[in-house]
Amino acid sequence: MTPTAASMNVPEEEELNRMMSGLGQAARHAAAVLATTDAETKNAALNAMAAVIRTRMDEILEANALDLAAAQKQGISDAFLDRLKLDAARVAAMVGSLEDIAGLPDPVGTVLAAWERPNGLRITRVRVPLGVIGIIYESRPNVTADAGALCLKAGNAVLLRAGSESRHSAAAIHTCLVEGLTRAGLPATAIQRVPTTDRAAVGIMLSGIGGSLDVIIPRGGKSLVARVQREARVPVLSHLEGNCHVYIDGQANLDMARTVAVNAKMRRTGICGAAETLLIDHAIADIALKPIVSDLTGLGCELRGDAAACAIDSRVHPATEEDWSMEYLGPVLAVKIVDGVDGAIAHIAAYGSHHTEAIVTDNQEIAERFLARVDSAIVLHNASTQFADGGEFGMGAEIGISTGKLHSPGPVGAEQLTTFKYVVRGSGQIRP
């Protein structure tokens, strides 16, 4: 028997449109409330959410086990499973992020600038919420809590659409967020979850749900983000991929370079801030490469390099042209020997994704040249690319790393989920 839409738990088109419209309208009403909600109330909700998640950790882990079992049956990659997996430490980190966000200054109402015109008009530029944000994400269940919390802190309502692979985990976490909202007296519809895995729901969100959504934020694989950027009828805040680089300069401290390179690649290989290409100045390649190769291969990392790197160490396999643009999200690292800092900058310009790049050097002038000329959202000197994270930047958490030029490149925290308006105060002035 051919399964029906009802038996597959997939709404018919009319029902789906009605449901999504209802979610959008409810979000707009909630956004109007949140726009004038004081900081104390929002923080009370965030702390209540943290408390509920803490007490319901077992339920969240049970839900996550269902998602992991389903993913394993589908033969999902280890990197994907790592992004999907929750354990006690990760749930505790989720709780900590909520509490950290509650402790941050409220960005709404911040006066960014103020001045007075010769005619007596007093003008201020003030931070205000974006409105209603739609967030489409795939495997990371913690995005449910981080996104909901950051949007609330910034005075926005949010509509969350988790991927089918994390639906049980997302639902369990979302239930905790809603309870936190209601305990603080805020609308439960301030943080909503699209309750269907029907992919048509994504298309409706990309259309803006009849004007209900103000911004779309995708967080997931390249195909998801590309579709959102291609089809969205509302502004998009996103990044395509994290092809991140570490450059070891000829004047680097080699012990530091070794430590930074290994951490940047191997601390967590499946995150967007993981290094995917190692660049080494030819002046020190003969002495710098072998110890790093030993460390990385000892940790199970495969290395693919250019002819010069392969000649220095036979454990480096020949790279293809595709390797220089690859976001592996796993234990594979491309290696290239370059002609100093200018060679590194040129390589990053040709193959990078404008995400995160690091230089290791003791020469401050060379470091400043790299930091100024590399066109990426995050650039680091003598530090691992794994610090490309909103929590590490003191933002409490992040929704993602934006690699776009407009609005807010880099980690997207609460402040980045606001815009501004001009408030003008007069005393009866008219324009001649």
Describe the protein in words.
- With 432 residues, the chain is α/β, with parallel strands linked by helices.
- It folds into two domains: 13-239 and 413-424, Aldehyde Dehydrogenase, Chain A, domain 1; 244-376, Aldehyde Dehydrogenase, Chain A, domain 2 (3-Layer(aba) Sandwich), CATH 3.40.309.
- The protein is built from 14 helices and 16 strands.
- The strands form four sheets. A seven-stranded parallel beta sheet has the order 10-9-11-8-7-12-13, sandwiched between helices. It has a four-stranded parallel beta sheet with strand order 5-4-3-6, with helices on both faces.
- Helix 5 (88-103) packs parallel to helix 6.
- The chain starts with 12 loop residues before the first helix and ends in a 7-residue tail after the last strand.
Core attributes:
432 residues, alpha/beta, Aldehyde Dehydrogenase, Chain A, domain 1, Aldehyde Dehydrogenase, Chain A, domain 2, 7-stranded parallel β-sheet, 4-stranded parallel β-sheet, 14 helices, 42% helix, globular, disordered N terminus
How do you describe this structure in short?
The protein is 42% helix and 19% strand.
SSE pattern: HHHHHEEEHEHEHEHEHEHEHEEHEHEEEE
Tally of individual helices: 14
**Could you list the spans in which at least 5 consecutive residues all have pLDDT below 50?**
1-8
> What multimeric state do the chains show?
single chain
> Could you report the average pLDDT, rounded to the nearest whole number?
93
Q: Name the CATH superfamily assignment of the largest domain.
A: Aldehyde Dehydrogenase, Chain A, domain 1
Cα-atom radius of gyration: 24 Å
Give the N-to-C terminal Cα separation. 77 Å
Biggest sheet: strand arrangement: 10-9-11-8-7-12-13
What is the number of strand segments? 16
Q: Might you state the CATH topology name of the largest domain?
A: Aldehyde Dehydrogenase, Chain A, domain 1
Task: Please tell me the CATH architecture of the largest domain by its name.
Answer: 3-Layer(aba) Sandwich
